[in-house]
Amino acid sequence: MSTYGTKRIVSGAHYGLRDWLAQRVTAVLMALFTIVLLAQILLTTKPLGYELWAGIFSQQWMKFVTFATIIALAYHAWVGVRDIWMDYVKHVGLRLTLHVFTLVWLVGCAGWAIQVLWRL
């Protein structure tokens, strides 16, 4: 008995669907956060200033939602930028350097944003 053709072995990272779904979920979370924040700003009679912003972010539920949104934003950005580096930067050493730089930068930005949030 003979076999015809070759068996195709698909290789790669195998995270396309997971990252596609993560991009959509994080985008929806960020959109909902924007709507909630805009509603709180537009539906108030207080003047737009520090007191209003401090009041909005002093509520524990808003701190939690903002924290989740910051993490979602960082992950959303990581998936997008990582895909750009993987698609367009062919030199492995440069691509690794850009990945590390991107991760450090995103973690730093998320940490700074969380620090600002908890100081309010």
Count up the helices: 4
Q: DSSP strand (E) fraction?
A: under 5%
SSE pattern, N- to C-terminal = HHHH
Largest sheet: none
Q: What's the number of extended β-strand segments?
A: 0
The quaternary state of the protein chains shown equals single chain
**Termini distance?**
75 Å
Structural class: mainly alpha
Radius of gyration: 21 Å
Using the coordinates shown, work out and report the CATH topology: 3 helical TM bundles of succinate and fumarate reductases
**Helical percentage:** over 70%
| Gross CATH architecture | Up-down Bundle
3D shape: elongated
CATH superfamily: Fumarate reductase/succinate dehydrogenase, transmembrane subunit
Mean pLDDT: 89
Just give the CATH class.
Answer: Mainly Alpha
Count of all domains? 1
pLDDT below 50 for ≥5 consecutive residues: which ranges? none
Give an overview in words.
By secondary structure, this protein is mostly helical. Helices cover 78% and strands 0% of the residues. It has a single domain (16-119), classed as 3 helical TM bundles of succinate and fumarate reductases (Up-down Bundle). The longest helix has 29 residues, at 60-88. It is elongated. Keywords: Cell inner membrane, Cell membrane, Electron transport, Heme, Iron, Membrane, Metal-binding, Transmembrane, Transmembrane helix, Transport, Tricarboxylic acid cycle. The chain crosses the membrane at residues 21-41, 61-81, 93-118.
